[in-house]
Write a structure and sequence with these properties.
Strand content: 35-45%
Number of helices: 3
Distance between the termini: 13 Å
Helix content: 10-25%
Number of strands: 5
Order of helices and strands: EHHHEEEE
Shape: elongated
Largest sheet: 5 strands, antiparallel
Strand order of the largest sheet: 1-3-4-5-2
């Protein structure tokens, strides 16, 4: 797989974020904040269901970026802001386009939308270092 050039749309990354996925993520990260996995705690906080951990959404941004780049690529910087919550039971899709490339780095501008029509993150930026010899067009 060669390095993409500016304007290349990377393959979308989609994940259904059911309660099992949220609990698995909490267990893997040792982040047991109750509103991220417990329906009763979410209801007590006035939420319709548990909310997806922001770090989990960040991991989805990284996964989408890396899936579209050569093996051995690695994120060096990420920047994103939340514009809405993602709730348990929703399916989230990350899309991204290469907006800069050069000196062994690729910058991808991304967003996350849900099947409920929510734009959870827009204008995220992930910078990825390509493996030696891959360059960037």
């Amino acid at each position: 797989m060669s390095a993409p050039s500016v304007g290349t749309e990377l393959p979308p990354f989609t994940r259904h974020l059911d309660s099992v996925t949220l609990v698995a993520y909490a267990g893997a990260t040792w982040d047991w904040y109750a509103t991220h996995h417990d329906a009763d705690a979410a209801a007590e906080a006035g939420l319709p269901s548990p909310i997806v951990d922001g770090q989990q959404l960040g991991a989805m941004l990284a996964a989408q970026a890396l899936a579209g780049l050569p093996p051995g690529s690695w994120p060096t910087r990420m920047a994103f802001r939340f514009s809405a919550m993602v709730f348990a039971g929703e399916t989230a899709t990350v899309t991204g386009t290469v907006t800069a490339a050069g000196d062994g780095l690729v910058t991808i501008t991304q967003q996350i939308t849900t099947d409920a029509g929510t734009v959870a993150i827009r204008g995220a930026e992930t910078v990825v270092r390509l493996p030696a010899g891959e360059g960037a067009a």
